[in-house]
């Protein structure tokens, strides 16, 4: 079995732009717990790629759960005067929460912590509720017992930041992978693979972004690592989303694992910037919308 990140990287590399002297360059690293990779074509690529680590340091300093960050300070103290980058994340989460009828909810962190620690998550679910996160006078305040995670959107958010950085430098052909994919130009061939069923389809990105979520790919305390705020079980083995932005694709792929086909089809019909959705059921059947 090929894990989904590795499979996507294999498929991307197989059809990516050539990296040769004077024509382009490649950067590899880590951020937010994910392996990162950027392929960039054009003169001056090396210099442009050198700007990526400082940008990712800002992302880690804002959203990481694995080191001292604005997010860990908010979770430990219950309040924060956010940076501009952190503040930019909040309306994005508002939008995703509304689009998915609450299935996308960054306040599920206490549930994840309970599962990780082997505790019953029922009590933790009483703490969940994005609407209980208060924002006034530029500050953020959590309700008692609350904690946030942006793991369902931060990697896509980072991919968009890097893609925008490269576009501002004048580049028009790049494939950015900060855990989710964002393309400048194209086409770039990416594979869709389910953790159980394996390779099922190929998509070609042209200036768009792609994210894939598989709840059962990682288990926390025997439960799927993607958790619904009210404890609903995932309906899909995998969901892949192509959208204009990697943050939108990332957040939607996280939440759509809990929505039925009719609700997803309705969302796609009315949401500009959402181009394609692939749904894989538990039997390995693929449905494309």
TrEMBL record:
Catalytic activity entry: L-threonyl-[protein] + FAD = FMN-L-threonyl-[protein] + AMP + H(+)
PROSITE patterns in alphabetical order: TAT
Molecular function GO terms recorded: metal ion binding; transferase activity
Keyword Translocase: no
UniProt cofactor(s): Mg(2+)
Signal peptide: 1-21
One Pfam family named in its UniProt record: ApbE
Entry keyword set: FAD, Flavoprotein, Lipoprotein, Magnesium, Metal-binding, Signal, Transferase
Enzyme Commission number(s): 2.7.1.180
Stated name of the protein: FAD:protein FMN transferase
The species this protein was found in: Gemmobacter caeni
């Amino acid at each position: 079995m090929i894990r989904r990140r590795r499979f996507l990287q294999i498929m991307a590399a197989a059809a990516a732009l050539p990296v040769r002297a004077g024509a382009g360059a490649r950067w590899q690293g880590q951020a937010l717990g994910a392996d990162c990779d950027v392929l960039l074509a054009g003169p001056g690529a090396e210099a442009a790629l050198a700007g990526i680590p400082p940008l990712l340091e800002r992302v880690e300093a804002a959203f990481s759960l694995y080191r001292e960050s604005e997010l860990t300070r908010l979770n430990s103290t219950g309040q924060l005067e956010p940076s501009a980058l952190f503040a930019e994340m909040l309306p994005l989460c508002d939008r995703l929460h509304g689009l998915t009828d609450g299935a996308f909810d960054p306040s599920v962190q206490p549930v994840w912590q309970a599962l990780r620690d082997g505790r019953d998550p029922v009590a933790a679910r009483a703490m969940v509720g994005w609407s209980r996160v208060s924002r006034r006078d530029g500050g953020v305040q959590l309700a008692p017992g609350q904690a946030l995670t942006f793991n369902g959107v931060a990697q896509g958010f980072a991919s968009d930041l890097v893609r925008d950085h490269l576009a501002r430098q004048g580049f028009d052909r790049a494939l950015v992978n900060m855990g989710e994919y964002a393309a400048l130009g194209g086409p770039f061939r990416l594979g869709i693979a389910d953790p159980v069923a394996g390779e099922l389809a190929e998509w070609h990105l042209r200036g768009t972004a792609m994210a894939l979520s598989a709840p059962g790919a990682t288990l926390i305390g025997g439960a799927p690592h993607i958790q619904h705020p009210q404890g609903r079980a995932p309906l899909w083995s995998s969901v892949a989303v192509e959208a204009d932005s990697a943050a939108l694709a990332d957040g939607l792929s996280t939440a759509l694992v809990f929505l039925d086909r009719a609700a997803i089809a309705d969302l796609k019909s009315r949401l500009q910037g959402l181009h394609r959705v692939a749904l894989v059921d538990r039997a390995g059947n693929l449905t494309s919308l």
